[in-house]
Amino acid sequence: MLGVYEDGEFAPASTFEHESQIMADQVQALTTLDAEVQLSTIGRALLKAWHIADLSSLAQKEAHVYALRELAGFSRQLTADILNVSPSTVDSHLQVAKRKRREAQNLLSLDQQKAQDQQSSTYDHDSILVEVINEIDDPQRAR
Length: 143
Known about the structure:
6 helices
């Protein structure tokens, strides 16, 4: 069933986000079976999308587009065909996914810089503390 008419308007039975979630969940479920599973290129990309969405701030639909376009190298049109969306939808989801990825990388860089700064200031503080202790132990060294 594609959907139903309610109050004179068509309501689809499923949406892109719903279908994408089902695809990713099915691929992920296949990998948890005790049987050996061979995934197609699309299947591998959808499994990566499932992991990306699970481990990041990307929505499922953004993760699907990112995995298919950027990781698997599918064209804009093929990605649209696989996900049953328009190429412009692929473009907008990819743009959002890339922006979120850049923001996450920037945040990570800031955290790493902060950690380095803290280590540097700790080192300087420790060095000064060692100098002070040495000066206390040997006042002639300070001169």
